[in-house]
Design goal:
Rossmann fold, disordered C terminus, about 290 residues, alpha/beta, single chain, 10 helices
Length: about 290
């Protein structure tokens, strides 16, 4: 049976490599991005490179709750199954800014909308396609995170790299809580650190003046995009991890994350806060739930 795989953030970097290599296998690939031109061109390139004509795309800005819901609805209309979901889209916004729904942008894209909500909106399809996999691209940056559960969006004290690190810790907390809630369903959830990759991350024209030279220097010691995508591809396709869930991987091997990521009270609390924020009428509000 042909598997259906969705990869978000697949028009550049490790997401593009992940999508391309998955398309080399017996799959129907769906890439999800926000640019019509880049999605169309990427899908065409992957078809030509791999010879797989079953490469489609959907459009959505995954920092938008409304667009994320709409993209998931379009997926459910077009496809009967989803065997693998690779949550890869992410960014670090150097200045504080909010989405049209009042959410801080890094928090919205890297966790709340791009991972938490999208996964929830597609869970019914995943559960109907078992065995199915959810692969969440996190980062070793989670080791420097310092979450304030009363201010997850860092309103009033925004710091770009700290918020990026926080969002990567959120990826792990979400993955571990999700895997526990999915026990017995046949759907697994794992997270990974791709390594420091030589990509265009942090190299945008609106980067703070010091970011571009630091990233350029760092690229001298970085992994290639092909190397950085290896663990995503492994978790999405390898029979070696069939049935494995609730784990964190680095270089295709299981690794222990920080103790903060393994704290079950924090996992539940983030889940509850996130669940409240994606409910209509509560987006952008300061929602706080006592830890249990």
């Amino acid at each position: 049976m042909t598997k259906t795989v969705m990869v978000t953030g697949a028009t550049a970097g490790i997401g593009k490599v992940t999508a391309r290599e998955i398309a080399r296998q017996d799959t129907r690939l769906v890439i999800l991005g926000r640019s019509e031109t880049r999605c169309r061109d990427t899908a065409h390139e992957i078809r030509c490179t791999t010879g797989n004509e079953r490469v489609d795309y959907l459009l959505a800005d995954l920092s938008s709750l409304a667009q994320t819901r709409a993209a998931a609805a379009r997926f459910r209309e077009r496809y009967e199954r989803l065997d693998v979901l690779v949550n890869n889209a992410g960014a670090m916004f150097l200045d504080y800014g909010e989405t049209e729904e009042g959410l801080e942008r890094t928090f919205a894209l890297n966790h709340l909308s791009g991972y938490f909500l999208l996964t929830h909106e597609l869970l019914d399809v995943l559960e109907a396609s078992t065995p199915a996999r959810i692969v969440n691209v996190a980062s070793g940056a989670h080791t420097t995170a310092r979450l304030d559960f009363d201010n997850l969006q860092m309103r009033g004290n925004y710091a770009a790299f700290r918020q990026y690190s926080n969002s990567k810790l959120m990826n792990l907390l979400f993955t571990f809580e999700l895997s526990r809630r999915l026990e017995g369903t046949g759907v697994t959830a794992n997270a990974l650190h791709p390594g420091f990759v030589a990509s265009n991350f942090g190299m945008t024209n609106n980067s703070t003046w010091w970011v571009r030279p630091v990233m350029t220097l760092g690229h001298l010691f970085a992994l290639s995009e092909d190397e950085g995508a290896e663990t995503s591809i492994y978790l999405a396709t390898s029979p070696e991890v069939e049935g494995v869930t609730g784990k964190y991987f680095v270089k295709c091997r299981e690794k222990a994350p920080t103790s903060a990521a393994l704290d079950e009270a924090s996992q539940r609390r983030l889940w509850e806060l996130s669940e409240a924020l994606v409910k209509p009428g509560e987006v952008g509000q300061a929602v706080s739930t006592p830890s249990r």
